[in-house]
Amino acid sequence: MITLSDGTTTITLDQDLRWSDEDTPYIVQQSVVRTLTGTLDIQAQAAIKGRPITLGPEDDSSGWTSMAYTVVEQLRNWAAVPMQQLTLTLRNVSRTVIFRHQDGGLETRPVVHYRDRLPGDFYHCVIRLMEI
Asked: Do residues 108 and 72 touch, judged by C-beta distance below 8 A?
């Protein structure tokens, strides 16, 4: 089970969401800038926090990894709050996270487009978080 909570409200996310960047190394952060003299200024440091956690469907045909509009609405409400801290529980491990707004934060689109939104409509979601 995958849950996301602000301490007051807890939502259950689709259990088939895939953590797409789970195996991407994030241990070392590096900045490379070319100076006015043409030399490189390279800085590198071990990352202490900020591990990316991107949760989404495997691909566009993954219709079963979708969430009801009521869940999407709560995600949108949280994403609208700057620095909103949430607790993500994934595979029985809890992590404190925030939305990665610099990478898009939250992306939602209906599985089937209807003119009127109803609480039972389903949406594909990509949730971009970072561990803090």
From this structure: yes
Q: Is 7 exposed, middle or buried (0-12, 13-18, 19+ CB in 10 A)?
A: exposed
Phi first, then psi: what are they for 71, rounded to 5°?
A: -70, -45
CA-based radius of gyration for the chain: 18
Q: How far, in whole angstroms, is CA 41 from its chain's centroid?
A: 32
Structure-token match 């895939």, residue found: 18
Strand partners, 52: 130
Burial of 112 (0-12, 13-18, 19+ CB in 10 A): exposed
Question: How far apart (Å, rounded) are the C-alpha atoms in residues 67 and 45?
Answer: 38
Q: Which two tokens stand for residue 113?
A: 């487009």
Tens digits of residue pLDDT in 1-45: 899 999 999 999 988 899 999 988 878 888 999 999 999 999 999
Determine the Cα–Cα distance for residues 4 and 10; give it in Å rounded to an integer: 6
Question: Residue 47: what pLDDT?
Answer: 82
